[in-house]
Write a structure and sequence with these properties.
Elements lengths: L7 E2 L3 E2 L2 H22 L2 H13 L8 H5 L1 H21 L6 H13 L10 H13 L8 H7 L3 H7 L7 H30 L6 H19 L15 H22 L3 H10 L8 H4 L2 H21 L6 H13 L6 H17 L7 H9 L4 H7 L1 H18 L10 H28 L5
Antiparallel strand pairs: 1-2
């Protein structure tokens, strides 16, 4: 791959840094406007309060508990906050900017809200201050690490403590989470070698296990939860397909060579650390995002799934990581493996957890990208079982449950696949291992 090509309108020259951030901000604004149109303002305010007050561990659909408008506005505001933080820190637009902001939007439809993320972010700022480094080095880890925000809400629901004690405890726990995330995420990355894209989900799962175990030791337990809205497929299909098709069209308006650069994206393995904005440019990345959004939405509908807060969040995770590793060539084998599991295993692909696994299993896209279609199908097949069972160990407190499961599967599969590949290479040269 060559260096980053010039990102420009065909007739108006290169896009400025400010313009690129404004284009990114159009996505949450699109849903905020939709939310204002789909729910009365009074209902939105009441829904936002409900979203803040309700426990939000997996699976809690904000559309079901707060309404479509409140859920979209909560998600849109958090995405805009994230974009604004990166912009005012003076950082350049990168693939990780897009990924983190899309994840913030997606998971703010079923777990993150405008109050429960900030103590974790405070911990990230404390870590950078303690190590005398710029917060820009860790800001994306902080955004991803808000997947543990249900822990903060859960602490606020400890009924035998006063409000002041609960508030102080939630802030302290959140800051501790943010402080330990950067070193732990660096360490867990070495375990799977970048073949699971949701690395912070892996490290967050470890943190969640420790926190939930401590809470249980003090008699604090959470009950299983499944709040899942249905009946909005037609409406949400129109909203999503219009957005993703608009991305595709706009990408061609931005550049003359978008398709050629998109082909280069399809050739990549997609291992963690990939940044398509830097390597191929803003326009091809936007095209990749739009195509992956359309494909993942159609696949979900074809298997009979519901479009709601959690599944839209899953689709936005695919679209967000389309800037940092995912493309149709490396996500389709993984999704086929999960669908195959739905036919052969003791669960249906239309179950809520299975639908989330279908979308979020694409954390293992680099496995298919480097080792091929059959390895990808096997990875998806194994991941579906892991994702449907590991969440019990931390009571749904880690929103990136599939990130934890994906980290386990990648850590298990990659050394084996590499050994098989190396053995074949040595066999061709008649060298024994």
């Amino acid at each position: 791959m060559t260096g980053q090509p010039s990102v420009k309108f065909r007739n108006y020259g290169p896009l400025s840094r400010r313009t690129k951030f404004m284009i990114l901000a159009l996505v949450p604004i699109y849903f905020i406007v939709a939310g204002l149109c789909l729910q009365p303002f009074g209902g939105i305010l009441k829904g936002m309060i409900t979203i803040i007050q309700e426990p939000d561990f997996l699976i809690t659909d904000y559309i079901a508990i707060g309404g479509i408008g409140a859920a979209f506005i909560n998600a849109g505001l958090l995405a805009l906050f994230s974009i604004a933080i990166v912009y005012y820190l003076g950082m350049e637009m990168s693939g990780h900017t897009i990924t983190s902001c899309f994840l913030m939007f997606g998971f703010s439809l079923f777990g993150k809200n405008i109050l429960n993320i900030w103590s974790i972010m405070m911990g990230i700022f404390l870590y950078s201050y303690y190590h005398k480094t710029s917060i820009t080095r860790y800001i994306y880890v902080g955004f991803y690490g808000t997947c543990l925000s249900p822990v903060i809400t859960q602490i606020m629901h400890i009924v035998n403590l006063t409000f002041g004690v609960r508030l102080l405890l939630s802030i302290l726990v959140g800051m501790c989470i943010g402080f330990v995330l950067p070193p732990l995420s660096t360490h867990t990355h070495y375990a799977h070698k970048g073949y699971s894209l949701y690395n912070v989900g892996f490290s967050s799962g470890i943190i969640a296990i420790i926190i939930v175990s401590l809470m249980k030791s003090f008699g604090i337990e959470s009950e299983a939860r499944l709040i899942w809205s249905t009946g909005n497929n037609v409406l949400f299909t129109k909203l999503l397909i219009s957005l993703f098709f608009g991305m595709v069209v706009f990408s061609f308006l931005l550049s003359n060579h978008v398709w050629k650069r998109y082909i280069e994206i399809l050739k990549s393995f997609g291992i963690s650390g990939t940044d398509y904005v830097k390597s191929e440019g803003f326009s091809p990345t936007l095209l990749n995002m739009g195509i992956n959004g359309i494909v993942s939405t159609i696949i979900l509908l074809l298997v009979g799934g519901d479009l709601n807060g959690p599944t839209i969040g899953g689709i936005f995770t695919i679209v967000g990581f389309s800037a940092t590793g995912k493309h149709i060539r490396n996500i389709l084998p993984i999704m086929i493996g999960v669908i195959l599991g739905g036919y052969l295993k003791n669960w249906s692909i239309t179950e809520p957890s299975a639908l989330l696994a279908l979308l979020l299993s694409t954390t293992l896209a680099p496995v298919a990208g480097e080792f091929g279609v059959f390895a990808g199908i096997l990875a998806g097949f194994l991941h579906s079982s892991a994702a449907l069972n590991v969440g019990i160990v931390y009571g749904g407190m880690n929103l990136y449950n599939n990130g934890f499961a994906g980290g386990l599967i990648a850590t298990f599969m990659v050394p084996v696949l590499q050994s098989i590949r190396d053995r074949r290479a040595h066999a061709k040269t008649h060298v024994s291992l």
